[in-house]
Amino acid sequence: MSKAPQIAFETTLFVRDHCLCLHAQRAARALARRFDDALRPLGLTNGQFSLMMSLNRPEPPSMGSVASLLAMDRTTLTAALKPLERRGLVATVANPADKRSRLLALTNEGRSLLANALPVWKRTHSDVDRLLAEHDAGGLRSALRALD
């Protein structure tokens, strides 16, 4: 039986220092914690805030369009919606044009909570923008969008 190949520790250090995926994941977790902490007094996570904000449209969107916007599969979106529906913040309704498809809408309570959460998000985002001031946050946003 042959021995498994060995990877030099220097290679591990190189990957640690250069892997864009690792750095993006670490940054995403740090950002998520920051926004989760800020939104916690309102009973929201950053993911719930983003999901509710994605529903803030003139017409209720389809599950597919929301899943696409949030880069989620429909199963993950369905699971993310359940706690918001249980709290009466989001409603899922049949699409009048196609009874097989579902539309998503904020309830009045959901719109009120989102309006209360928005100033918290703005303050937190301003704090993040200040932290990134010397690093071109706009350029970072553009670079991340290029990966979509």
Automatic annotation (TrEMBL):
Membrane-spanning intervals of the chain: none
Top-level lineage group: Bacteria
InterPro entries xrefs: HTH_MarR-typ, MarR/SlyA-like, WH-like_DNA-bd_sf, WH_DNA-bd_sf
One matching Pfam family: MarR
GO MF, any single term: DNA-binding transcription factor activity
Any GO BP annotation: response to stress
Ranges for domain HTH marR-type: 17-148
Name of the protein in question: MarR family transcriptional regulator
